[in-house]
Amino acid sequence: MATRSTPAKKNPVRSRPAAQDIRVAPRILSEEEKHQLIRAHARARQPVDRRQQVTLWAGVAVCIAFVVGAWLYTVGSGIKKSFAGQMDPNLKHSLELSKQFADETASEAFGAHNELHTAFDNIASQLDILSSDSDLIDSMASQISASSSATSSPQLFKASPSSASAPTSTH
């Protein structure tokens, strides 16, 4: 006869309320509590190791350079491959017009640069002339003041003795 085995007992599953069922209203912090929290986090911060920070940024720069270089390499080869075959006549005409426009713009910019350079040279030479004229005027003024202080200068605006007396009135 076969014996019956009893099934193993299972632990009862506890019923827990779901996380969605628990609704706790968020607590609004006062301004002072916010400042205390910020100050506590600031005190808990560790000082930054500058060598580690520089190494981190150098690694980021190398990664960016690698990604950009690889992207340019793949895009450049793709562009070369797309133009390797017969080019569309409209696109070819458009590229020629763009090249002509770029050449004309460059020559105009170069001409404007030369004109500005010439104008600046003219202004600089005029300033040199004015500076030398100013030096000449200063030297003439110092010579005049030196010669006038050596001799007695006439006082043109001094009242004469006959007009210095008070006017007499006759009634």
How does this structure look, described?
The protein contains 4 helices and no strands. With 171 residues, the chain is mainly alpha-helical. It is flat, with a radius of gyration of 47 Å. The protein starts with 30 loop residues before the first helix and ends in a 7-residue tail after the last helix.
Number of helices: 4
Strand content: under 5%
Radius of gyration: 47 Å
Following the backbone from N to C, one meets helices and strands in this order, namely HHHH
Categorize the overall geometry: flat
Whole-number average pLDDT? 77
Q: Which structural class matches the secondary elements?
A: mainly alpha
* Sheet with most strands: none
- Annotation, overall tally of beta strands: 0
Provide a quick synopsis of the model.
The protein is mostly helical and 171 residues long.
How would the blueprint of this fold be written?
Blueprint (H helix, E strand, L loop, with lengths): L30 H14 L5 H33 L6 H62 L10 H4 L7
Structural descriptors:
171 residues; mainly alpha; 4 helices; 0% strand
